[in-house]
Design goal:
Blueprint: H1 9-13, H2 20-38, H3 42-47, H4 49-58, E1 65-68, H5 75-83, H6 118-131, E2 138-143, H7 150-162, E3 166-172, H8 183-193, H9 195-210, H10 217-236, H11 238-241, E4 245-251, H12 255-267, E5 271-277, H13 285-289, H14 310-318, H15 323-337, E6 341-345, H16 355-360, E7 365-367, H17 372-384, E8 388-394, H18 395-398, H19 402-410, E9 417-421, H20 438-443, E10 449-451, H21 456-468, E11 473-476, E12 500-503, E13 508-512, H22 516-529, E14 534-538, E15 541-543, H23 547-556, E16 560-567, H24 572-582, E17 589-594, H25 604-611, H26 615-625, H27 627-632
Parallel strand pairs: 1-2, 2-3, 3-5, 4-5, 6-7, 6-8, 8-9, 9-11, 10-11, 13-14, 13-16, 16-17
Antiparallel strand pairs: 10-15, 12-14
The structure holds thiamine diphosphate, 1-deoxy-D-xylulose-5-phosphate (DXP) and magnesium ion.
Magnesium ion is lined by residues 143-145, 173, 175-176.
Length: 633
């Protein structure tokens, strides 16, 4: 039997146990070939090949529920559940999603993208199962990185208390995106290495079972040994304290051992935690030996070489700097000048461009694990004592820390700068990762200052401005490269709440924010060729809004098109509308932003086109506002 003959878990079950290692090799080869063309999350998937095979071999999806935490490691599950043929479209527009997707397959029972949700979801399913008198297995698969997330710990607390049947698979590869960190990680390390202790525990228990229950000193002594052994075992295993039966650690690449352990877990009532030790990047040397274990690779990754293809490298050299790189460089410059600056990342050191900062300022760099809520409140704590923390966080993950931004940072008016990376469309990761809500969810928070630069040069000035400002600021910036402008040598402070007029015009105002400014400028040029003069405004601040600029537009009766790469509900367009209405003014305002639905994976260009954030649609919208005005003139 070969992989191409397996398009369902039923067919997998026809494979003999002896053939499984060969299927595992075929899966690895398929992943490597396929992802070298499309890109995607390589390292984690190479690490779960045997684990996924074992789960589908022994258990019965879709009746049994597999919940993949984060979901970036669900490619093998997709291959085994009939989607192998769709891999050429992986993470492409209208193609196979890079994460579990309920409308893609009945085997995807739980959608993910953000980490640490699987245990709570599993608890919900287990409770529903029991309340409805049903019988199926609930199996969340959670990584050691995802286990550092607060939600996962909240769920352990609940699951251990309720004692419902559930098999938690802890896939421990000692890696988050970067090497995993934290006390829990250290603790797992002790469990992993303490194999002799586990062997001793099994041997002593077996021995004691043989001691006959006779009276006298010997029996008392045996009971005392039993008690102290119980204490040793229990105090060594945090999970047992929490109400789980702990099984493992088991080698996640040895199919025989792994399946034996899973069978034992299946026979155990109540919540069981199976500690599976795997290697991220397993089977591909460039991944095994690289620090990030090739967590994800770009399109065109060349096999057998742990570097990108020639064409990609050349292109990268010629491209303007990535915003993330400008952030990392500016952070270092700010930290050199100000010893009060400390930077925090919730597990995204590399992704946030902070590796070099961590090298240069190890004492002032904090990787707190996948703990966005803690990261935000930790920043607040630092700020109360006169530090000037910078919280580097992706827009989509800042959603996790919403109450902390309101309650701990902004309400106390603390001097925290939030560097909101990946703001706007993120492309291939798709709907779970789009950074499109932060303007709306932060604009309503008192004390917040929210800005977004039109280019990478303005970005460094905004970071400088945010650092100088004594209160909460959010500087949002997109994924990817800048637009190729010259970078000023010195950083300067921008006036808070002031936009800039980039082009004069009397027919219509294009009021644009961040990435949309250059698109608006292009639209203005197109309109000029048709005789329509558009005024282009770089809003710079979503809060405070530059009301002077809007007052001027009101006084001229100039229609406005607002343009932003963020949710149209509650964004900068809403801010303009709110202000116009507060002035009892009658002015036409059209809001261009992201409509009220989740935009799926694809390229950012395809995503922008889908929602009308294009030169053509801006020009079309502006045209629709101008005829009456031009007739009057
Ligand atoms: C809430 C949240 N924060 C951050 C991330 C980014 N992220 C994706 S995968 C990952 C590491 C997950 O580590 P682990 O669960 O151990 O899986 P592994 O990659 O090691 O297989 C992180 C931090 C995320 N997806 N969700
Ligand atoms: C699964 C996950 O959340 C991350 O791996 C994410 O895909 C990283 O995104 P960037 O590539 O934008 O850093
Ligand atoms: Mg891990």
């Amino acid at each position: 039997m070969h992989l191409e003959q397996i398009s369902s878990p039923e067919q997998l079950k026809k494979v003999t146990p002896e053939e499984l290692p060969q299927i595992a090799e075929e899966i690895r080869k398929f992943l490597l070939d396929s992802l070298s063309i499309t890109g995607g999350h390589l390292g984690s998937n190479l690490g779960v090949v045997e684990l996924t095979l074992a789960l589908h071999y022994l258990f019965d999806s879709p009746k049994d529920k597999f919940l993949w935490d984060v979901g970036h490691q669900a490619y093998v599950h997709k291959i085994l559940t009939g989607r192998q043929g769709d891999f050429p479209t992986l993470r492409k527009y209208k193609g196979l999603c890079g994460f579990p997707k309920r409308n893609e397959s009945e085997h995807d029972c739980w959608e993910t993208g953000h980490s640490s949700t699987s245990l709570s979801g599993a608890m919900g399913m287990a409770a529903a199962r029991d309340l409805q008198g049903e019988s199926y297995r609930v199996i969340p698969i959670i990584g050691d990185g995802a286990l550092t997330g607060g939600m996962a710990l909240e769920a352990l607390n609940h699951i251990g208390n309720e004692q419902r049947d559930m098999m938690v698979i802890l896939n421990d590869n000692e890696m988050s995106i970067s090497p995993n960190v934290g006390a829990l990680h250290n603790y797992l390390g002790k469990l992993r290495t303490n194999r002799s202790y586990h062997k001793m525990k099994d041997e002593v228990e077996a021995l004691l079972k043989k001691i006959p229950s006779v009276g006298g000193t010997f029996a008392n002594m045996a009971e005392r040994i039993k008690d102290s052994l119980k204490y040793l075992v229990v105090s060594g295993v945090l999970f047992e304290h929490l109400g789980f039966t702990y099984l493992g650690p088991v080698n996640g690449h040895n199919l025989n051992e792994l399946m034996e352990c899973l069978k034992q877990a299946d026979r155990t009532p109540g919540p069981v935690l199976v500690h599976v030790v795997t290697e991220k990047g397993k089977g591909y040397l460039p991944a095994e030996t690289k620090e990030d274990k090739l967590h994800s690779v770009a399109k065109g990754y060349k096999l057998e070489e742990s570097k990108l293809t020639e064409t990609t490298v050349k292109k990268a050299g010629a491209e303007p700097p990535k915003y993330t790189k400008v952030f990392g460089d500016t952070l270092i410059r700010l930290a050199e000048e100000d010893h009060r600056l400390a930077a925090i990342t919730p597990a995204m050191l590399g992704g946030s461009g902070m590796n070099e900062f961590a090298n240069q300022f190890p004492d002032r760099c904090f990787d707190v694990g996948i703990a966005e809520q803690h990261a935000a409140t930790f920043a607040a704590g630092l700020a109360t004592q006169g530090m000037k923390p910078v919280l580097a966080i992706y827009s989509t993950f800042l959603q996790r820390a919403y109450d902390q931004v309101i309650h701990d940072i902004a309400r106390q008016d603390l001097d925290v700068m939030i560097a909101v990376d990946r703001a706007g469309f993120v492309g291939a990761d798709g709907e779970t990762h789009q950074g499109v809500y932060d303007i709306a969810y932060m604009r309503c928070i008192p004390n917040m200052v929210i800005m977004m630069p039109k280019d990478e040069n303005e970005f460094q000035h905004m970071l400088y401005t945010g650092h100088q400002f004594a209160g909460p600021t959010a500087v949002r910036f997109p994924r990817g490269a800048g637009i190729g402008v010259k970078m000023d040598k010195d950083m300067k402070e921008l006036p808070i709440g002031k936009g800039e007029i980039l082009r004069e015009g009397r027919d219509v105002a294009l009021f644009a924010f961040g990435t949309m400014v250059s698109t608006a400028q292009e639209a203005a040029e197109q309109l000029a060729r048709e005789g329509i003069q558009a005024r282009v405004i770089n809003a710079r601040f979503a809060k405070p809004l530059d009301t002077e600029i809007v007052d001027q537009l009101i006084s001229e009766g100039m229609p406005i098109v607002t343009i932003e790469e963020g949710s149209a509900i509650g964004g900068i367009g809403s801010a303009v509308l709110e202000y116009v209405s507060s002035q009892d003014a009658r002015l036409e305002v059209k809001v261009l932003g992201i409509p009220d639905y989740y935009v799926e994976h694809g390229s950012p260009e395809e995503q922008k086109k889908e929602v009308g954030l294009t030169v053509e649609n801006i020009a079309r919208t502006a045209r629709g506002l101008t005829p009456r005005r031009r007739q009057r003139a």
